[in-house]
Request: fold
Amino acid sequence: MPYTLNRLKNATIPSFNQLILPINRAKIGMPPLKARGYRPLKMTFDDQLKALIFFHLEEHMSAQHLLQVLKEDDFARNAIAPEDGIKKSSFAEAINSRGLEQLSYIYQNLQADAVSRLPKEHNKLGNLISIDGSLIDASLSMQWADYRNGSKKAKIHIGFDLNHGIPRKIFLSDGKGGERPFVSMILSQGQTGVMDRGYQAHDLFDQWQEERKYFVCRIKASTAKYCIESKCVNPDSNIFYDAIVLLGTPGVNQTKKPVRVVGYIVDGTNYWVATSRYDLTAEQIAFIYKLRWDIEKVFAWWKRHLKVYHLIARSEYGLMVQILSGLITYLLLAIYCREQHNEKVSIKRVRELRIKIQNEIRSTKVNNSIPNLMAQNILNSYAKT
Reply:
């Protein structure tokens, strides 16, 4: 019988293996994923996780696109897909009904791993967590994703670690879900939440201070300020206001606890920022708010290049599976780019990684084809004799 190719699963694709290597440590102690009833799992959790990482890494446009690649691409079929392949119905069932507990476990452990490996920037400014929400377009069949008539949207609420450049806590709600209530869920004691004007809420400013959670939050310029103590500002800096105040209108929405307000100008725009950080200079407060844009860059990059919002799930459960796997992919890339290039994640390095994987696949296929040719030549020589 003719010589057959070994599965690429048994071959070495160093770059892809290097990318997913941290998962081995993150899985230690993970609760097992068990089959329902007596039927064995057609798609193990490892198969599911690798398929989802592959989906985010390779920019597949849909579940159907991913499944086609898992069937027709040599590397995907042999190194990513289950041994006997995966049908659309089985894939959909897996994404929408299982794996969330295991993904959450890996995500938490990968975070800790990333924190231990990545440098901590802005250390003197404290533990900075940028908080924001982002809408996800949903299909009309996703009844749970309430937004408005004729439109369905979900919303993710995320805390982004500005010191390490990685995502932290994440929550999912329908599109109408308010953003402010998630601040207390995202922040831990001693952390500083960095937020835009949409999070301005004077009662919550009081609550966060009681919870010993710090904040740097932009406020509306028209917000009433009752000055308790005015601080000196450098006339040569872009700071024009620094004072301890009570925010809001007395008897209506005034804060019970004083807050610090810093006003500064950038490119002709005046910024007013409320904060409970009294240990920093006004210039440092302005710099911290500038760092908030890092989370906007990550959201844009995530949507554009990791394809998190090309929905492959319709249930709330399945969408959280997809989002968590996207965050896991981002953490893996953050670790990979730091260890391989001493850099932050960038699309340049992601493209480079994709090309390396494809080149390694071609090399493996060429090397494996040599024994095939030798075997075929032997068979041909026997046939002639």
About this structure: Residues 347-384 form the longest helix (38 residues). The chain is about 45% helix and 20% strand. Residues 218-289 form one domain. Residues 1-11, 369-376 have pLDDT under 50 and may be disordered.
